[in-house]
Amino acid sequence: MFVVGLTGGIGSGKSEAAKLFAALGVPVIDVDHISHQLTAPGQPILQDIANALGRQFLLPDGTLDRAALRAHVFADNSARLQLEKILHPAIRQAALLQLAANQNSAYQILSIPLLFEGDGYRTIVNRTLVIDCDEAQQIQRTMRRSGLTEQAVRAIMAAQISRAQRNQLADDIIENNGTLSELSQKILEKHKNYLQACIVSQ
């Protein structure tokens, strides 16, 4: 398997990049989507979270109050570590199963917001691709998309590695300060490069 690890800071446009790769026919495994599936009502991990962090993070209909939980774990490092201990092993196992199911594809995208913050996935990917934009863009996009305050967005950014560190660790970088059309063209160019890399590596 040839796997490209796709990452980027909050508001960088990583999700849009993943959609553009998918539109080109590339399988995209998104650990955020896996996390949502694992914490859906009726899933055992949801009960584990409630037992560890408190039932106040469950809404009356039994769904996870993601906004409240996000705010709590970004304000309390011990709570964040508890949540990661519950979620991360299950997410990684599900991601590996999905990658194996697509192993006949030329290459795959594994979308991971915190790719460089741990070593759980870096041994899985062949190359890393960072979607990058300036800090002001990150904040504006995230506030517009999620309704979070600037303070809340900055707290999330502070929990991630710095932009400079992320870019230094990346094999490939796509700058995304422009339009969606410009991002689409850059994704197409990278797609061609990765297809060529797959041929070379065979």
Outline of this structure?
With 202 residues, the chain is an alpha/beta fold.
Describe the structure.
The protein is an alpha/beta fold and 202 residues long. The protein is built from 9 helices and 5 strands. The chain has helices at residues 14-23, 31-38, 44-53, 66-75, 77-101, 135-146, 150-159, 163-169, 180-201, and strands at residues 3-7, 28-30, 108-111, 127-132, 172-175. The longest helix is centred in the middle third of the chain and has 25 residues, at 77-101. The mean pLDDT is 90.
Rg calc: 17 Å
Number of strands: 5
Mind telling me the CATH superfamily name of the largest domain?
Answer: P-loop containing nucleotide triphosphate hydrolases
* CATH domain topology of the largest domain: Rossmann fold
CATH architectural label of the largest domain: 3-Layer(aba) Sandwich
Largest sheet: 5 strands, parallel
User: Would you list the SSEs in sequence order as H and E?
Assistant: EHEHHHHEEHHHEH
Q: In whole angstroms, how far apart are the ends? A: 10 Å
Strand order of the largest sheet: 2-3-1-4-5
**Structural class by secondary-structure content:** alpha/beta
Portion of residues in beta strands equals 5-15%
Tell me, what's the shape?
globular
Total separate domains: 2
Tell me the name of the CATH class of the largest domain.
Alpha Beta
Write a concise keyword list for the protein shown above.
alpha/beta, single chain, Rossmann fold, 9 helices, 5 strands, globular, 11% strand, 202 residues
